[in-house]
Design brief:
Order of helices and strands: EHEHHEHEHHEEEEEHEHEEHHHHEHEHH
Largest sheet: 8 strands, parallel, barrel
Number of helices: 15
Strand order of the largest sheet: 1-2-3-4-9-10-11-14
Structural class: alpha/beta
């Protein structure tokens, strides 16, 4: 029996592939380009699109903001929520997931915003739960530096608990609309939560009505051991990066084990692995395209600038043609760092960057014709056990050609093999679509 899997796409509200021949030259900041991408993904029946976010101007690479601003890496980046509204109102079935940091948003505001968005989008909203991993971001919110990773996750556990209780502060049938007696909502079915924890204190209740999903879909990218536990406990869908098929299977099995330990059905947690397909009319065309991309000096600096921003480690200090001198540690995104450095491999920094298109976003190499890549994706999912793929470009820069390659080339090839959905189930919410197979 053919195993169907889920598809999602991740990008951010940044310039598109502004230096490439198929970019718009910087992407107008009205959101129309990104909204058109969402419409294309809906035509291809993707489960959801996720809008990534960061809350600072990086200064790690080379010790200043120059490289980040000059290359358009991580910055500029506009707020994901207005874009989520635009994309959601321009689509009818596609899930729209916005990144909201537990550092930046008080729990009450996250719950209120998510509930509002889910109502506006008819049950298609998702919250990408991030703790933020940069001291520079912390300094934009009154902190001198971030708490340690373990403390951030402990805070996030409590944060999600608060948000869940706020969603439950209204019973699903609290709105009665009793015209005869003049009662809009039954006050006995709306309650304060009186939450007082180690990190948060929230009275409640929410002042929004229950949304179609009652709570949005929860999405999380937890790569570290502690992050996997958090994701398995809370997420409906996990964004994952792993080295090769064996690494992908180990990651999924580990998350499912933690989900079961947390009292959840492991099948309720859909692990989507990040991949960066490179497609061509022939295999040689695809390989030539891939080689042109990864051999560009700009590509190497883009990857290192992005990794520096995520980890707050200055990769400009290391020789590109020598192995990293020691195992790097960070209070930032350790999973992204480990994925790049592959400690013990003996590879030079340049080789690490070039490995698997930068080693940041591709769990397995997918280069070839749409049929070749679709066949490989099916084989990988069979070996891994499920649940699907998160498609993206190496540095989250979109262009219309890449989108068309995926939606008009790859997805039809996947459908011919019965690997992905060819229609949405009418009336399904995002969480229901994720639970469908």
């Amino acid at each position: 029996m053919t195993r169907k899997f889920h598809l999602a796409c991740i990008f951010n509200f940044t310039p598109d592939d502004w230096q490439g021949p198929f970019g718009t030259g910087g992407s107008p900041w009205d959101g129309k380009f990104h909204t058109e991408v969402a419409q294309a993904l809906e035509r291809a029946c993707f489960d959801y699109v996720i809008i990534e976010d960061k809350l600072m101007v990086p200064e790690s690479y080379g010790g200043s903001a120059e490289r980040a601003l000059r290359q358009g890496m991580v910055v500029p980046k506009h707020d994901p929520v207005p874009l989520a509204v635009a994309m959601g109102l321009a689509t009818s079935h596609l899930g729209i997931v916005a990144t909201l940091s537990t550092l930046a948003y008080p729990p009450f505001m996250t719950a209120r915003l998510s509930s509002t968005m889910d109502s506006m989008l008819g049950g298609r909203f998702g919250w990408n739960i991030v703790t933020s991993a940069e001291d520079l971001a912390a300094r934009n919110f009154g902190l001198e530096k971030l708490p340690t990773r373990d403390v951030r996750y402990a805070m996030a556990d409590e944060y999600v608990d608060v948000v869940r209780r706020l969603f439950d502060s209204w019973d699903e049938d609290a709105v009665v609309l009793d015209r005869e007696n003049g009662i809009y909502a039954d006050h006995t079915k709306v309650r304060p939560i009186h939450f007082k924890g180690e990190y948060f204190s929230v009275r409640g209740p929410l002042n929004t009505v229950p949304s179609p999903q009652h709570r949005p879909a929860f999405v999380q990218a937890g790569a570290s051991p502690r992050g996997r536990v958090f994701a398995a406990r809370n997420a409906d869908s996990v964004i994952a990066i792993a080295n090769g098929v064996a690494g992908m299977k180990e990651f999924r099995d580990d998350v499912r084990k933690h989900a079961e330990a947390a009292g959840r059905d492991p099948d309720d947690v859909k692990v989507l692995f990040c991949v960066t397909p490179t497609l061509g009319e022939t295999e040689q065309e695809a390989r030539d395209k891939h080689q042109r991309m990864i051999s560009s000096p700009q590509f190497i600096h883009d990857i290192l600038a992005e990794t520096s921003a995520l980890t707050e480690i200055d990769f400009a200090q290391f020789d590109l043609d020598e192995p990293l001198p020691y195992r790097l540690q960070t209070n930032g995104e350790q999973g992204s760092l480990d994925q790049l450095q592959q400690w013990g491999s003996g590879k030079t920094l340049r080789e690490l960057v070039l490995d698997a298109a930068g080693g940041l976003v591709s769990s397995v190499e997918l280069v070839g014709t749409p049929d070749q890549v679709a066949e490989r994706m099916g084989e990988v999912m069979e070996e891994v056990g499920g649940d699907g793929f998160m498609l993206t470009t190496p540095v989250l820069r979109l262009n219309r050609r890449w989108v068309a390659d995926v939606t008009d080339g790859l997805v039809p090839a996947l459908r011919r093999r019965g690997l992905t959905r060819d229609a949405y189930t009418p009336g399904n919410t995002l969480r229901q679509n994720l639970a469908e197979f």
